[in-house]
Amino acid sequence: MPQSDWVQQVKKRTLRSFERRFRRKVRVMTDWDVICYGTVVIDYVWQMAELPKPDGWMPISGEKRMIGGEASNTAIALSKWGASVALMGSALGTDPEGEFLRKSFAEEAPALDLSLQPFSDEVKTPFCACLATDDGLRTMFGSGDTALFPPVLTPEIASRARYVTADPNKWELSVEALFTASKAGAKVVAMDFMRSEEVCREAHISITSHAEDEKGSYAGFARKMRDRYGKSFIVTAGAEGSYVAEEGKSGDAVHIAVLKLDKVVDSTGAGDIYRAGILFGEIQGWNLIKSARFASIAAAHNCLALGGWGGVAPLRQLLERLDQDPDSIGQ
Fold first, then answer.
1. What is d(CA 170, CA 148) in angstroms, rounded to the nearest whole number?
2. 34-326 — its CATH code?
3. In a structure prediction context, what are the per-residue pLDDT tens digits for the chain, which is 331 residues long?
């Protein structure tokens, strides 16, 4: 080998080694892997065979009171899998419902950092009534929407996380939070912000549900958005699985088949747990397809129990399933 080629290879290896060490240092310097920004509520979940007809009646076969909201669901899953997570959500009251949530966080996700989560005696804790029917679908009713205002995410706080994710329920605040995070150096994972071209350009990964192109294709929409904005896009489609169009790749989006279940108990939070799976894979340094497979498995398992995070499976169980034949997971 010519000496000049050998010198170039040594330089490249040295540079790669430096980059790896630098990335490790960056991870140490941040306080959290993820800040989950957005909606936090108390969920009242009722299980029933089907919704009653007008002026009708239907017995409740199961019920649960628990932490709810997109930000909470994602944060709890990540925390249970060992990620360092801070929750920055809509203000909760110091009323009995708020105290129930505070106690529930301590019991269910003791490692979850609540230092950014506001509790106020001026707020009535918002709630959501979730009706889970035997067909696996859920119907939701909410109260306290006027209280669903998370605090402003400052650059100082955003810079302390590797990733920031948000839901769109309080649109202006969430869009501002994602821009602040990106400018502060955090990677943004956006959920359901397709109507903001600015967020689509800024986000590291965008996830949305049941979005079709002009031909009615989920895969086509994911590909179109990736090609338009140059960033990774994922479309989740319930029982049809998800479609991943990865940044820097060309051609069709990759289809990730859904994990088949004998019975879906409750689909509440499936998208939130899918998002948690994508973020977990990012934290591990996986490629996006592997992350999406993990996310699909995690979301499916969550549908086996009531509530937005009630079926979050232990990490070891999910990793064992991930290591099985990829064809059984989806290509």
1. 7
2. 3.40.1190.20
3. 554 554 355 345 444 443 444 344 444 468 999 999 999 999 999 999 999 999 999 999 989 999 999 999 999 999 999 999 999 999 999 999 999 999 999 999 999 999 999 999 988 999 999 898 988 788 988 886 555 678 999 999 999 999 999 999 999 999 999 999 999 999 999 999 999 999 999 999 999 998 887 788 999 999 999 999 999 999 999 989 999 999 999 999 999 999 888 888 999 999 999 999 999 999 999 999 999 999 999 999 999 999 999 999 999 999 999 998 555 444 4
**Tokens, residue 224:** 């179109």
Q: Are strands 242-245 and 138-143 parallel, antiparallel or unpaired?
A: unpaired
Chain-centroid distance of CA 245 in Å reads 17
- Tell me if 178 sits within 8 A of 193, measured CB to CB: yes
At 303, phi and psi to the nearest 5? -75, 0
Q: How far apart are alpha carbons 4 and 162 in whole angstroms?
A: 38
> Tell me, what DSSP letter sits at residue 226?
H
Alpha carbon of 330 to those of 97, 184, 205, 281, 296: distances in Å? Answer: 41, 36, 20, 17, 9
Q: 3-state DSSP call for residue 162?
A: strand
Spatial separation of the C-alpha atoms in residues 78 and 57, rounded to whole Å: 38
Q: Which residue has the tokens 């205002």?
A: 149
d(CA 87, CA 117): 6
